[in-house]
Task: structure prediction
Amino acid sequence: MRKRIFAAFVCLCMMMALVPSMAYAGDTVYTGGLCKHHPQHDDACGYSEGAAEVPCNHEHTEECYTLVTNCVHEHTAECYSGETTEPICGHVCSEESGCITKELNCKHEHDASCGYVPATAGTPCTYVCEICNAQPVEEPECNCDTKCTEEESNTDCLVCGGENGDISGCVGKEKTEEPQCVCDTKCTEEESNADCPVCGGENGNIENCIGTVSKMSMSPRSIVYPNELSMAGVNINNNDYYKNDGNGGLIEGTKDDYNVHYDAERNTLILNGVNVGDNTHYTSVKSDVDNLVTALYIEGSQIIIELKGNNILNGKDLKDGENVTAALIGKSTDITITGDGTLTCRGGSVEKSTYDNVGTYGILIANGKIHCEHEGVITATAGKLTFKNSQSIAYGIYILSGREDSVFEMRSGNLRASGGDGGAGNTKYGIFVKSKEKAVFKVSGGEIRANTGENNKNVSYCTGITVEGETASTVEITGNGKVYIVSEGKNNKGIYR
Result:
């Protein structure tokens, strides 16, 4: 009877296994089996039920046991008599004494008569529901540093970019634009644009000023164009473009390929890597008493020279009938030099002349002014002077005037001025500012290195910088301006005024 009850219990357990289990929304792992998308097993899922074991109904008989003797009696003194060593208790091992017991040693083998059926294992359902077992999809995250706008979004962002991008979920920070300089005019320590977000105010920084037009330059409405503008023998026309010919001259250029351009609207001569001037390519200027030759000639009004790249102007070597050579000559003009390029001006050499008064200059300005507001380096060097008489001179920069003030003013950049390497002549100066009225030499920024040049043993007068005005001579070195002077030779001086 007990075996039948046990068999019924096993069958009940197997039936419970067929009852589908419930799945909950919070479950994170799905192992396969029945679900609402696979409510019943089929051949495709591979499921099969197992069978529980049917127990054997064999009942043990005497033949299934073996008698085993294991004496449990212990002899005491009463079991012995006299001097004999043999026990006299008469103990005999038996089942009653517990020394002989039965141990099961059934040799029965299951057969049809005992009713035994072994259990059979089932096979699990291999169906895995892709819906119930779907992995959670991670929401894309915005990786923007800068806040996206309707006009500009981050195309690489998984949230903001692409056709379905949604910038409303952008986590980037609002874009803070750096203040931009709005100056047209170059600010200085003395005067800056109070309305500029970069240069103005208490925390203004004029070092980042992008203005290129000088304070002294004119507005477009008041521009008076130069009477003459010539380079290497070529007249520079308004708004035309020119480029180096590779031999010291100029040929026609284009807007995309040029070395020289005159922007009439801004009254600005742009030098963009020009390299001109030699004994063949030059501009000749004659006056009542002088015959001058130069690489660049500017006459009249004001003009801005804007430097881009490395620029070289070479003066022509003097020959008979010529008495003045310079890389740049300005007559009755006010020149402002701007830009971040460089400019090298070399005067021509003087070996002989039919004139008594001869001169070689890097830059020569007659009745005019120079204002340096550039960021690069300007080098002005006189040519080699080997022709010696009482009126032969070699100056790096010479500004002279007979009827108005002569002005040299430097606000930024670097300037190198030298009297050249000639070993003859009467005077060699690095910079000479001379006027019958007032001579002015001002440096409020940048750096000047002026020297008389080399081989000055036989030169009569050598001065690094000379400022000579008949009514007044002004020398001002202020702010961040620096002036270094090297002067050697007879009667040499650093700054003479």
